[in-house]
Amino acid sequence: MTLRQQADLAIPFIAGIAGTLVPIVVFVGIGLSLQTASWFSWTSNALSDLGMSAPSAALFNNSVIVAGVFLFIFAFGVRRVLPRFTSLSLLAASGAFIGIGLVPETIFVPHWMLSVCFFICFVGCFFGCGLRKSLVPWLRWSGLLLGVLAISSLVLVVLLPGVAIPESLVVVPGFVWCAGVAVGALMLPALAQKKTRKYSTPAMTG
Question: What is the C-alpha separation between 83 and 95, in angstroms, rounded?
Fold first, then answer.
């Protein structure tokens, strides 16, 4: 196997690992932040409120930054599998997500702009999959379902004083979807391709 072939297999696999780590880092970080923020209310606060003051701020902001880096690596690798619009939306979303951790809510206007950018780009990648007929059915329908769920959650923004619940309805299933795509569209095909090349004979490979 040539160096180029090894790289072609390694990039999707590394991106797949990064994609599976995104929800783990986010959920653990938010969970630990909640344990140190007894004042937090799911109906009255935003998730970003956890990043405003110690001790929850360090846990929340750092986990968002790390998860954003993993999301960027995943988006870079998944560009070979998903439509161009979807991968570009994910790249933009990852940059905005890193910015959310770097610019806490205490710097309100830039933080708010980064948050809006993240949610628009993140939801956009779902519809990018859902509206692409050439994709395999599970990618199309899962993307479309998550896009509709995200749009539907806007109703709760009007009904509740806080946005933590609608934010969670986008972030939680969205990051789980990233992990599913990472495994199903990147890691498993890369492993299968590696196995096929490993057992190929010189006559088969030419």
Answer: 19
Give residue-wise pLDDT tens across range 178-199.
Answer: 999 999 988 888 777 766 665 5
Q: Is 81 helix (H, G, I), strand (E, B) or coil?
A: coil
Tokens representing residue 83 in the block: 């439509």
The rounded distance, in Å, linking the Cα atoms of 55 and 103 is: 17
- The tokens describing 97, both together, are 């997500």
Tokens 């509206």 identify what position?
A: 131
Separation between Cα atoms, residue 161 and residue 163, nearest integer Å: 7
3-state secondary structure labels for all residues of 115-159: HHHHHHHHHHHHHHHHCCCCCCHHHHHHHHHHHHHHHHCHHHHHH
